[in-house]
Amino acid sequence: MGKQEVLLLVLVFAVVAFEQPIVDAKFSNSMHFNWGVQHSSVVGDGDELHLVLDQMSGSGVQSKKRFMFGSIEMLIKLVPGNSAGTVTAYYLSSSGIKHDEIDFEFLGNVSGQPYIIHTNIYAQGNGRKEQQFYPWFDPTADFHNYTIHWNPREIVWFVDGLPIRVYRNYENMGVPFPNQQGMWVYSSLWNADNWATRGGLEKINWSGAPFVAQFQRFRARACKWNGPVSISQCALDSPGNWWSSPTYSKLSYTKQGQMKWVRDNYMIYDYCKDTKRFNGQMPPECFQQQY
Ligand SMILES: *[C@@H]1O[C@H](CO)[C@@H](O)[C@H](O)[C@H]1NC(C)=O
Ligand SMILES: *[C@@H]1O[C@H](CO)[C@@H](O)[C@H](O)[C@H]1NC(C)=O
Ligand SMILES: *[C@@H]1O[C@H](CO)[C@@H](O)[C@H](O)[C@H]1NC(C)=O
């Protein structure tokens, strides 16, 4: 290796080391309005976003930056009252054909009946890994914290700090894991009354329109995607890459206990239990203990 190459290498590492995780408070700075622009608004000092759905259109936003690994955080207050047929989505996606995706979706309901918190994950185009939960609180009365932790070992879905689901890296069993593509962060509110509420039985009652979902404090404490060079950089176990440290590669016993409480009491669908759907050929990760 020549002197110049060494210098270049040192320079590259210096840049990586000093790259600060993104902490950008303002929706107007960190997001594009990619759908139904006239239906979305940033309010207050820029840290609150309203998405609107009416008979004309839904609406949505997309982060300007892509990320690979880290903590993606959002406070959300869902559509109140009769929200049947509406879906509020909050997810990461790489887009493209063999896309990766990590989902939170909130399926509305008629007044007084529970929302469904729907989760899913795609890796290299393979999805069909849904798990669903009832919230243990009224998600329309106040803002709640929906966070995704994504690192080379596992993905964790958190609600108000309680882990509700973990998806471990099962690449050693030939199951793809999202670690080759950066993902954007998206939020949207749309009409899904062909499937969302009681499997499509409850249609949207437009007399309640416009429907509004509110978002606050979007934070991506995450590794910025700079193209394929980020695949190894973001996975590196270095002090700056806190998400790759051993602490985040496995839930603590306390967190495991919290997750068990949620799953024992509020989980309503698990793809790993749906033998009929998979015709008995269950996905290989379903046979693994999560820990
Ligand atoms: C949201 O939850 C995550 C994960 O538990 C936590 O790290 C973060 O600080 C929380 N954000 C807020 C605003 O409470
Ligand atoms: C809506 O309420 C019905 C009746 O309680 C329930 O079966 C269903 O799971 C709830 N959620 C959705 C999104 O359909
Ligand atoms: C829609 O909601 C209105 C009240 O907002 C109610 O009067 C009407 O009966 C509802 N329509 C249906 C089809 O449930």
UniProtKB/TrEMBL annotation:
CDD domains: GH16_XET
First-listed, main subcellular location of the protein, grouped into a coarse class: secreted
Residue stretches making up the GH16 domain: 16-215
Biological processes, Gene Ontology terms: cell wall biogenesis; cell wall organization; xyloglucan metabolic process
Cellular compartments per GO CC: apoplast
PROSITE patterns the record matches: GH16_1 (PS01034), GH16_2 (PS51762)
EC code: 2.4.1.207
Domain of life assignment: Eukaryota
Subcellular location: Secreted, Cell wall; Secreted, Extracellular space, Apoplast
Pfam family, one: Glyco_hydro_16
GO MF terms held by the record: hydrolase activity, hydrolyzing O-glycosyl compounds; xyloglucan:xyloglucosyl transferase activity
Gene3D superfamilies recorded: 2.60.120.200
Residues annotated as catalytic: E101, E105
Post-translational modification: Contains at least one intrachain disulfide bond essential for its enzymatic activity.
Entry keyword set: Apoplast, Cell wall, Cell wall biogenesis/degradation, Disulfide bond, Glycoprotein, Glycosidase, Hydrolase, Secreted, Signal, Transferase
Glycosylation sites per record: N109
InterPro entries xref list: Beta-glucanase-like (IPR000757), Beta-glucanase/XTH (IPR044791), ConA-like_dom_sf (IPR013320), GH16_AS (IPR008263), XET_C (IPR010713), XTH (IPR016455)
Secretion signal, residue range per the UniProt entry: 1-25
Function: Catalyzes xyloglucan endohydrolysis (XEH) and/or endotransglycosylation (XET). Cleaves and religates xyloglucan polymers, an essential constituent of the primary cell wall, and thereby participates in cell wall construction of growing tissues.
Assigned protein family: Belongs to the glycosyl hydrolase 16 family.
The protein, known as: Xyloglucan endotransglucosylase/hydrolase
